Amino acid sequence: MVQEEDLELYRSQLLDLRSERPSRSVRGLLDPIQVYVNERRVGELKGAEIEATLHVHGVDHIETVQLRTEDGRLLGGLVAPESGFRTARVQFSADTVELCVQNTVQGGSLSAVFIPAPSFWNRTWTILADIADRWMVRRPASTMAYGIRTVAFTQVLLATAVIGLVADRVMIWIAPEHIVAPTAQAEALRTASIAEVEQLAKQLRELRLMQTKVGDALQSQEKGMTLLHQTMARLSSTQESVASSVVMVKEEIEKRQESTEREADRPVQLPVGRGVVDQEQFETAIHGLAADNERLSKQIAGLEEHNRTLTAKLQMAIAHVAKAVEQNPERVVAREADVARKHQLVPVADSRQNTQAQPFLFWVTFSEGTTQESIDQWVNGMKGHKGSLNEGWQEVQIIPPPVPPDLFLEQIKGDKIIKEARLNH
Amino acid sequence: MATMQNTLRKSHIIADRTATVSRLEEVVATSDEFDQVVAQALPILLDRAAGYTKRFLRETGQWNDDIEHEKFALRWGSEYLERFLVCGRTEVPCRPLFLFDSLVAKQHSKPEPFCYHPDLLKPLGRFLDGLVARAVVSRDALIALYHHSYGWGAGDVIAVTGLNGLESQRIYKNFRRWRESGWQRTMDEIGLTKAELVELESQRQRQRQRFNSEAERLIRVAQGHYRKSEPDHYPCLSRSQWGEMFSQGYGCDYRIWHLALCLDCMQTAWGLGSSESSAEKPRLELQVRP
Ligand SMILES: [Zn+2]
């Protein structure tokens, strides 16, 4: 009887534990999130105030992914599909982890991105970026997506401001109808509208100034985040590979020492030392950072170019407005609405075209003994073309792949003729 | 009269259960709906998972009709339920009951779904199995294993594993959380009662040597099983390999994980961390309290 009570007590205790909502679990602000694949620990997301990424790639299929706090509570996870993709967003307090799992015949891969709770500025941007998102074709979450969204956001900010200004004008133009006598209306509008247009032009200049400032702030913050993000990812992968390569190197040395004892006269080539590997990895990381800088400045240039186009279009719209006011005051409202609609749509369509037209660049090295013919065949197979060749690395341009860049690179690495693949030389 | 009321109440309960089960068999379309439907059915799902675990133990010749085995089945049923609650909501649309059944079946089709050993069902074994199992999913518990195995504090752990400043801060946090809530939660999960804990503590004080040698035998069983959850590339190392790792200052995670979960490597790597090399090699000194 005592035993039965004991068992019933245990059962209700377990039920209490299970009915706690996982989101209620307390995670310290700077505490890392433990990542488990197939119930085996694979690493952690050092989630503080910056984005952090963890990539896992293995020959085994991924069955489950779990995220846990340091105290062991399950924050979230997903069951991976037999083959193909699955993504999930795990939200706890204000932070988010985006999981993306893929299973192929070659094995499984996981990318987990920690997105911290936004700071004040981040929140402001996110609200505006959400406006941008509504007009954008969402691409799968990737490091590129952030940049694209930022560009789109700036454009939409401008478009929103323009609509705001136009609406403001319309209100001013509508209002006189109710107070001014019909005979006086045309004259009043003519004088008023010229002044208005001048004011509009002035506001436009201010707007451009403001936009430049916002753009600058955005770019510098984005650049900083990208750099930090990449440095973190590279450092952690360096650490990982160093740890595992040391074990391998140690074993190798031992094996070789054994064989040296047996065949003392045979020369032994020692494997590459840890220091060398380390330094090489760091050099690669620095190269990568430089290339990223370059890519960002290209994006900025593109953004500026686009703003110029937009401004020109706006000035054309103002000219139309001025004419319309002089010709027919009654039609102003309708025409204004037209202009507003046009402007609302312009940046969206443009940014979409930009996104699609931008080729995807990456670098590869080929396995030894690969012929030029099979390289060409491979490039053609991807409907791409070759770019420059640098220290054995071949640049390849293709239309953007449907999967995130990191996963795409992992996929190509599975090709027989590819030795290495990466985003930046 | 009382009997009639009882019968009436029982039939009500049965009717409720039937309704809940049939709701679980229907398709849920969203994660929120999943949460809602499943939250009302926790007792049913727990009993169901425990039932499957019981059947698995029976079929593999590991069952005995006693409270220890019942508790074991409940504990694993509860583990499966936890995973189902979190992962199932990403599987929508689905029929929760069938998803749950397939999840449990998948667990039971693995080579060793849990660490079963008759001696691990007794209080001392349950305590050790629970600690080591928790260490696999909780870093707090992993660090606490050093305390429970050797009686060390945060400073000792940092010295023995040769950690740097940044990692050290984390160890103090791990210790604090474990004392505040982690230990109690783990005891609740494995169902060790206050009386059982008091009894363990008094055994530890009365028959120190016997207690510790029995604990060492059992913790080896548990460590051997749960070490499989370590990353693939964390095998046992020789002293010179450990020495290299300590002196070069890499493999922090490796050291923390493997040394906590391997008595032998702790002996092998002893003295590499810092100045404690003159002290005697550590022996298992099991601590019950955090
Ligand atoms: Zn070991």
What does this 3D model show about the protein?
- The complex is a heterodimer of chains A (425) and B (290).
- Chain A is of the alpha+beta class.
- Chain A folds into 4 domains: 2-115, no CATH class; 120-252, no CATH class; 285-352; 359-422, 2-Layer Sandwich (Alpha-Beta Plaits).
- Chain A has 9 helices and 12 strands.
- Chain A has a 4-stranded antiparallel β-sheet, with no helix packed on it. A 4-stranded antiparallel β-sheet of chain A has the order 3-8-7-6.
- In chain A, strand 6 (84-92) and strand 7 (95-104) form a beta hairpin.
- Mean pLDDT of chain A is 67; it is low at 135-191, 261-277 and 329-356.
- In chain B, helix 3 runs parallel beside helix 5 (96-108), helix 6 (123-137) packs across helix 9 and helix 7 (139-150) packs across helix 9.
- Chain B has 2 domains: 2-108, no CATH class; 118-268, no CATH class.
- The longest helix of chain B has 26 residues, at 165-190.
- Chain B is globular and about 70 Å long.
- The chains are: A alpha+beta (425), B mainly alpha (290).
- At the A-B interface, helix 1, strand 2, strand 4, strand 5 and helix 5 of A face helix 3, helix 4, helix 6, helix 7 and helix 9 of B.
- The complex binds zinc ion.
Helix and strand pattern of chain B: HHHHHHHHHHHHHH
Q: Largest inter-chain interface?
A: A-B, 46 and 57 residues
**Global geometry of chain A:** flat
| Integer average pLDDT of chain A | 67
Bound molecules: zinc ion
Short account of what is shown:
Chain A is α+β, with helices and mostly antiparallel strands and 425 residues long. Chain A contains nine helices and twelve strands. Chain B has 14 helices and no strands.
Summarize this structure as a short list of keywords or feature phrases:
heterodimer; A: 425 residues; alpha+beta; 4-stranded antiparallel β-sheet; B: 290 residues; 14 helices; 70% helix; binds zinc ion
